[in-house]
Amino acid sequence: MTAAQLFPILLGIAWLIPLASFVAILFFGNRMGDHGKGAATVATSAIGVSFFLSLITFFAWVMAGHEVSSPHHDDSHASVHRTYNDTEQSVQAVVFRSPEHGDAGGSHASGHGEAVVPASYSGDWYTLYESGTLRLSIGWYIDSITVLMFVVVTFIATCIHFYAAGYMHDELHDVTDSEVRLATGEPLHREGRFPRFFQALSLFCFSMLGIVIAGNLAMVFIFWELVGICSWFLIGFYFERHSASTAANKAFIVNRVGDFGMLIGLMALWGGLGTLQFGDSVSSATGQVEPGLFELVRPAENHHEQQVPDGLVAFAAADQIEKMVAANPSSGELSREVAAAVPDWREQGYGRWLLFVAGLGIFCGCVGKSAQVPLFVWLPDAMEGPTPVSALVHSATMVAAGVYLVGRFFPVLTPDVLLVIAYTGGLTLFIAATIAVTATDIKRVLAYSTVSQLGYMMLALGVGGWVAGLFHLITHAFFKSLLFLCSGSVIHACHTNDMRKMGGLLKVMPYTGWTMLIGCLAIIGAGVPFVLGFSGYYSKDAILAQALLFSRTNPQHSILYLAVAGGAFITAFYMFRLWFMTFAGSPRDQHVFEHAHESPRVMTAPLVALAIFAVAAGWALPGGLGVESLLEQARPAGTAETITTAGILGSITLPAEHESHSGAIHVTATLTAFLTALSGVLLAAAMYLKPLISPVAVAHAARPIYTFLVHRWYVDELYNRIFVLPTLGLARFVAAIDTQLIDRFINSLAWIARQIATVDAWFDRVIVDGIVNVAGSVTWKAGLELKRIQTGNLRQYVMFIVVGTVAIFVLATLLFRTSFAG
Amino acid sequence: MNHEAFGLSANLFAFLDWHGFFFLLFAGVACVAAVMVVLSDNVVRMALHLVLSLGATAGLFFLAGAEFVGAMQLMIYVGGTLVLLVFGVMLTAQTQLVALRTPAGDRVIAGILAAAILAVLLQAAFSVESWQKPGQGVAAAPRATPLGMALVGVRVDQVAEEKLGQPKNGYLLPFEIVSVHLLVVLVGAAYLARAKRRQVPRPVEIVASTDSLKPRPSGVASATLVSGGPK
Amino acid sequence: MTCLLFGVVSVSHYLVVGAILFTCGVICMALKRNALGVLMGIELVLNGANINFVAFGSEYLAGDGESVLGLDGEVMALFVILLAAAEAAVALAITLNFYNNHATVDVDRADDLHG
Amino acid sequence: MAEFLIETIGLPPWLSWTAIAGLSAFLILNVIAGGALVFIWAERKIAARIQDRLGPTRTGGRFGWLQSLADGIKLLAKEDLMPDGADVLLFRIAPYVSFCASFCAFIALPFAFDVVGQRLNVGVFFVVAVLGLEVFGVILAGYASASKWSLFGAMREAAQVVSYEVPLGMCVVVPVMLAGSMDLVTIGEKQAGWASNWFIFHDPFTFIIFWVYYTCALASVNRAPFDLAEAESELVAGFHTEYSRLRWSFFFMAEYGSMFLVSALAAILFLGGWNGPVPISQLLGLSDGMAVDAPYVLRLLGCLNLFVKATAGVLVMMWIRWTLPRLRIDQVMTTCLKYCTPIAAVMFAGVMLWQLLLPGGLVAGSFRNAAGVREGWLEQSNSGELDSEGSMSGTIPSRRIVEVSR
User: pLDDT value at position D22?
Assistant: First the structure.
C-alpha cells in the first residue's frame, strides 16, 4: 500500500473515531456506568486511538522522506518522482502534487527546479453534489501540516480527556451550583452532566480534525461551523449560570460576524472559479485532472507565481464579455475570444479586487474564530466554560483553526491581504497583552495571552513568515494548553479564579507549580541564545526575525516589528506576574491556602506530559527531523522567494523566509527576544516577587491608563453602544410597528369579519334554513301520503312489476311503432 | 342409434317427424306442468310439477342441440328444486299445516295480468320474420368444448371472424365473477340459515286466521304430513 | 304453429314455450302465499328466459343459417342457471329465517315494513 | 345398424330409426331387469356365505339360481296396499320416477365402443345428473306414503344424496380432465391398450381418487354402509315401508340398476372401460386399432369386459354391505364433507399438477398406446368439435368419422 493510499485511510479513521464515540455517548451515554462514568472511558479511548493512528501516519510520513521544498537541494526530486509514480499506478482519485505532476497533467514545461511544489495528497471520499464543474465533496488534503496538526490536536486532546476525567468528576453525582441562585434564593440543585461533557468533547475533536484534514473550503466551512457549535455547547456547559449562557451566545454571535465574511469569500471564489478544492482533483465525470485553488492561483506554468486566475478575471470582466456577446453572438467564437482576452484583462487588473475580497473574506472567518481584533471580545468570556474546554478549545486547537486556515490558504492570499492580516495581528497582540497586564482572573490572563499569541501568529503569517506562524501555532498549542491545565488545577484546588486570593501555592502543589513555570518560560520564549531553549524560544525567534526582515525590506511597516518586540516584553511581564502571584510569595488568603491541595494523578500526569512537549517541541532532531523542517515540506509553492508586488495597498515586498535565517537578522531578533523577555521577567519579579515597586503605586500613578486597561479598552462597552443598543432600539421600533399598526389593522379586519358573519348567520338561519325546512316538510308530507302505497305485500309488488312491464311494452310498441323484440 | 334418431334428417321424406313429436311432447309437458305449479296448493305437488317442467325444458334444450345446457339444467335446476322440495316438506311439516289459499280477487287480477303479459310476449315472439322460418336442420355442433373454451376466454367458434384474440370476446371474467358469486352466496346462505335460538313460534291461530282452515282427518301422525292432498 | 308434426320447429315455438313458462312463473309469484311457492315461481320465470336464450343460441333452430346469438346464448343460459341456483340458496335461507321468526312461510305475514 | 336396416332391408328411415330406438330401449331394460334378478340372487348367496350360511339352495337346482325369479312371481302375487291418507298420485308415480331416472342414465352409457343408446358428448355429465334424479322418486315416495318412517328415510336419503353429489362430481371430473372430453366413448377409448393406460393407474392421485369415487357412488346409490334411507333397525324399511308388490320391485330394480350403473361408470372412467387389461385384439392382429370397423365380435368382447368389471364392482358393494356396520347420519355427513370432499379436491389439484409436470405419464409415451391410430381420429373428431363450422363432431356416426380419418 503506497503512502497515497495509506494516509487518507489512517487519518480518515483517526478523524471518524471521535464521531463514533460521540454517537455512542449521545445514545448510550447515560447507560455507561453509574451517571455515565464510562463516557469518559469511551471518549478518551476514542481520541487515544486517533492519536495512535496519527502517530503512525506521522512516522509513515517521515519514513516516506518527502523533500523539503526550499530552493537549495533539488536533489531529492527522484524520490518524489518515485512516490508520484506509485500513486499514479495505484489510485487515480488521489493526486500527488510535485513538479513532475505538471508533466503528467501536460500543463507546464518541466524543469523549474527552483519552484518546488510541496508534497501533498488530495482526493475525495464522498461527493455530496456535482454538476458540471461545481463539486461539493468530503475530501482530504494531506501534507505535513495536516499530519502535524493531527498529532498535536489528538495528543493534546488525549491529555485533556484524561485531565477532564478527573476535573469533571463533580458531574458524576448531583451538583449543587452555588453560582446559580433560584428565585427562592437557594442554590440550584441539578443532576450531573458527565456524559454530556464528553459527548461534546468528542464531537469537537471530530470537527477539529475535520477542519484539519478538509480537502476543500466548503468542507472547511462545514466543520468550521461544527467547532463553533461545539464551543457553544462547551462554553454554555453550565448554562444555568447567566454569565455562561450569555458568554456562549456571545461567542457564537461574534463568530457569525466573521463567518459572514467567510461566506462572502467562499461565494467570490466559487462564483469565479467554480471549485473550492485545495489541491488538484480527478473529476469522477471526466477522468482528467481538474486544477484546484492552489493550482489556479499559482499555476505551474507561471512558476507558481501568484496571479489572478482566469475564472476570476472573466468573472470580474463580465461587462467586457457582454460587449463581446453584443459584438458577435456566436457562442463558439465567444469562449475562444474570452480565453484570448483574459491575459490583457488581467494586466488591466480585472479580478484583482475579487481575489482581494476573497482572501479578506476568508480572513474574516479566521478573525472571528481565532479572536483577532475587532472580534476578540468573545474569547475571554469563553473562559466561563470548564477549564479543560478552555485548554483544548479556546487556547490550543479551535482558536488556532483560524491561523491554520490562513496558513492553509496562504497561496491564495494576495500581499494586500497579508498586510491586512499582519496589521490585525499586530494590533491584536498589543491590545490583548496590555489588557492581560491588569487582569486578575487567572484564566482571563491566560485568555488574553492566548489572544495575543494568536496575534503573533497572524502577524507572522502576514509578514510572510509562513513556517514561523504555524510553528508558533504548534508550540503555542502545547504550552498554552499546559498553562490552562495548570490554572485549572489551581482553580480546582482553590475554588476561585482570583489571583489576589492565591499565593505561595508552590509548596502545596509542586507538580502544578513547576509545570506552570515551564509553561511560562516556554511562552515567553526563554532559552539560552543560540544554544538551546524552550519550544517558544524557537518559534518566537522565527516570528521576530521574520517581522524584523519585513520591516527592513519595507520600512513603512516597521511598526509591526515594534509591536512584536513590545508584545514579547509585555508577555513576559504578565505571565510571570501571574506565576508569582499564584505560586510565589506568601499566601494572601489563608482560608484558600489551607484548603488547597495537589490535584490527583489523572490531572497531574497530563501536565507533565504536556510540559515535556512544551520544552522540547521546538527542538530539531538531527536529520532535519523537527517541526520546523517538517513544516518546510508543506510550504506552499512559490512562497519561498522574495516577491515584490504593487498591490492595492501600495507596493509590498514579502521577504523570503529563509533569508530571516541569515546571520544579521537572526542574531538581532534572538537578542531582542531574549532581552525583552528578560526585562519583562525582571520587572514582574520586581513588582510581585520582591516588592521593590508597588503595583498599587503604579496603578495610582497611571490611573487613566490603568482604568482604561482594567476596562479592557472599553471594547465591550463600545460594541454595546455601537451594535447592541441600536439593535435593541430598532427591535423596539419594529415591535411598536407590529403592535400599533399591524395588530390594530388585523383586529379591525376581524371586527369587520364578525359583523359580516352576524349578517350571514341571520341570512343562514332565516332564509337558507327556511328553504331547507320547507323542502324537508314537503318531503315528509309527501312521504306520509305515499307510504300508503307500500303495503309490504310481496305479491302486490309482483303485480306492480308486471303492470309496469306490460305498460312499458305497450307504450314502446305504440309510441315507437316497434316492438321490443323486433 | 345416434343423434339423427331424433330427426335431424327431417328433410327426408317422413310423415311423422320425430323432432316435432318430441318437441310437442316436451313443450306440452313443460307448459302443463308449469300451469299445474300455479294451480296446485300443495307445496310438494308444486315441486313435483316444477321438476317435471324443468326436466321437460332440459329435454327441449337437448332438442335444440344444447346438450351441455340441458345436462346442466338437469343437474343444477332439478337438484336445486329437489332441495327446495326437501325444505318445503320440512318447513310445512312442522306446524299444523293449512293450505294458504289466496283470495279470489287476487286470482282474478293475476289472471288478467297474465293474459296481458302473455299477449305481449306472444306478440313479441311472432314479431320477427326470421324467427318463424323453420330451422334448416343443420346438425348442431356439440357445444361442450366451445363452451368450455369460451368460459376460459377463448372463442373457438369465432376463429373465422378472427375475434379469437379479443379479450372481451370470451367469458373468462364473467365466469370468475359467477364462481366467486356462488361462493359468496354459499357462505351467506350458511350464515343466514345457521341454527339460532328459536323463539317460541306465534300461536297458529293467526296463521289459520284466513277462512281456509280445512277440517283435517283425526290427528293421525301421518295426517300432519299430508297437506291438502286430493281426498 | 301450423302442423308442427310435419314441419321443423322454429325459434318462435321455443319462444312461445318460454312465454308460457314465464307467465306461469309470474302468476305463481303473484299468487302463492307460500314463500316456497314464490321461489318456484321465480325458478319458472328464469327458466322461461333460459328457453329463449337457448332458442336464440341454437343453430339447429336458426331460421336462416346461423343463429341470432350463437354460443353466447348458451353461455348466458349457463350463467342464468348458476345464478338461479345461487338465488335459490339465498332465498331458501331467507325463508328459513323468516320461518324461524314468524313460525310460518306465509309471505302475506311478511309485511312488517308496510308503510 | 340403422343404416344397415335402411340400406339393405330398405325399411323407410323413420321406421328403422324407431325400430332401432325401441330395440336399444328394450335391451337396456333387459339389462336392468335381468341384472336385478341376477344381483338379487348373488346378494343372497354372498350374504349367506359371509354369514356362514348356505343361502337359497333349492329353487331351480342346487344353487337356487331361480330364487329371485320366484321372488318376482311372489311379488306380483302380493296384495297392493296403499296407506290411508297417502297422497295417491305421488304414491303411484314415485317408483316409476326412480326407475325412469336410473333407466335414463343408461341411455348415455356405452357398453362397448359405440355400443351406446345415445352417444352424448356430455355423457358423463348426463349420467351423473340423471342419476341424481333417482332420489327424487324416493323422496316423493317417502312423502306420499304419509308415514313418519318413510318421511325420515326420504329426508335422510335426500340430504345424503344431495351432499354426496359434490365429491362425486369432483371425482368424475378427473377422468374427464385426463381424457379431455366428457364423451364416455372417448374416455373409454383413451384408455385402450395395456392396463397401464387405465386412468386408475395413470398416477397415484387417480388411484386414490378412484376409491373416493367408489365411496361416493356407494353413498349416492345409498348402499350399505350408507343405507340409512332403509335402516330397518330404526325406520322399518325406510322410504318404501308402505310399498309392496310391483311398485316395490320397481324401487328394487332402480336400486340395483343404479348400482350397476355407478359400477359401470367407475369401470369406464377409471378401469379402462371395455378395454381388457391386455390388448388382445391388436396382439392377434384382429384389428389394426380400428375398433370402428372391427368385427362386432370385438364389440361383444368389449361388452363382456365392461360387464365383468361392473359386476365385480357390484359384488364388492355387496361384500362391503355385509361386512361393514351402518353409519349414523352425522357420520355419513362427516364422511362426505370432512373427508371425501377435501380429499377429492386435493387429488384433483394433484392430478392437474401431474398433468402439467409430466404430461406423458411416468413412462413417457406410455399414453401413446397401440391404439394410436384410433386416437388419431379421436384427435380429429375433437378438433372437429373445435372448428368453427361445427360440421363435424364427436356425435356424428362413427362411419363418417372413419371416412374422414382415411
Answer: 84
Domain range holding B88? Answer: 1-142
B117 CB within 8 Å of a chain A CB: yes
DSSP collapsed to 3 states, chain D: CHHHHHHHHCCCHHHHHHHHHHHHHHHHHHHHHHHHHHHHHHHHHHHHHHCCCCCCCCCCCCCCCCHHHHHHHHHHHCCCCCCCCCCHHHHHHHHHHHHHHHHHHHHCCCCECCECCCCCCCHHHHHHHHHHHHHHHHHHHHHHCCCHHHHHHHHHHHHHHHHHHHHHHHHHHHHHHHHCCCCHHHHHHHCCCCHHHCHHHCCHHHHHHHHHHHHHHHHHCCCCCCCCCCCCCCCCCHHHCCCCHHHHHHHHHHHHHHHHHHHHHHHHHCCCCCCCCCCHHHHCCCCCCCCCCCCHHHHHHHHHHHHHHHHHHHHHHHHHHHHCCCCCHHHHHHHHHHHHHHHHHHHHHHHHHHHHHCCCCCCCCCCCCCCHHHHHHHHHHHHHHHCCCCCCCCCCCHHHHHHHHC
| Across B180-186, average pLDDT | 88
Kindly list the partner chains of chain D, i.e. chains with 3 or more CB atom pairs below 8 Å.
B
For residue D108, what are the domain limits? 79-405
- Report the domain count for chain B: 2
Residue D282 lies in a domain: yes
**How many separate domains does chain D show?**
1
User: Subunits with at least 3 CB pairs below 8 A relative to chain B?
Assistant: A, C, D
Residues B155, B123 share a domain: no
Which amino acid is residue D403, in one-letter code?
E
End-of-domain residue from the set B79, B109, B142: B142
Per the CB < 8 Å rule, is B114 touching C5? Answer: no
Q: Are residues B66 and B156 in the same domain?
A: no
Q: Which residues of chain A have pLDDT under 70?
A: 1, 66-116, 132-133, 283-287, 329-332, 623-624, 817-822
pLDDT: is D227 or D167 the higher one? Answer: D167
Q: Tell me which H or E stretch contains A142.
A: strand A134-142
Regarding whether B168 and B107 lie in a shared domain, the answer is no
Q: Residue D306 in contact with residue D267, Cβ under 8 Å?
A: yes
Q: Chains A vs B: touching, with 3+ CB pairs under 8 Å? A: yes
Considering the domain boundaries, does residue B76 fall inside one?
Answer: yes
Domain-embedded: residue D171: yes
- ipTM comes to 0.70
A–B CB contacts, 8 A cutoff, strictly below = 30
Helix A415-438 and helix A559-583, axial crossing angle in degrees, nearest 10: 30
On whether both B59 and B89 belong to a single domain, the answer is: yes
Confidence grade of residue B96 (pLDDT, cut at 50, 70, 90)? very low
Instruction: Please compute the mean of the pLDDT values over residues D142-152 and round it to a whole number.
Output: 81
- B110 and B159 assigned to the same domain: no
Three cell numbers at D388?
Answer: 368453427
Segment B207-229 mean pLDDT: 41
Q: Give pLDDT, residue B142.
A: 66
**B137 and B153, same domain (yes or no):** no
Asked whether the predicted pLDDT for residue D402 surpasses 50, the reply is: no
A786: nearest CA partner in chain C? C115
What CATH number should be reported for the domain holding residue B26? 1.20.120.1200
Q: Which tens digit of pLDDT belongs to each residue from B23-60?
A: 888 888 999 999 998 888 778 888 888 888 988 998 88
Say how far apart CA A370 and CA A389 lie, in whole Å. Answer: 15
Same domain, B138 and B124: yes
Same domain, B161 and B138: no
Whether the CB of D14 is below 8 Å from some CB of chain B: the reply is yes
Q: What is the pLDDT of residue A77?
A: 35
Does the beta carbon of D302 lie under 8 angstroms from any beta carbon of chain B? no
pLDDT digits (tens, 9 = 90+) for A99-150: 333 333 333 333 344 456 778 888 888 888 877 667 788 889 998 899 999 9
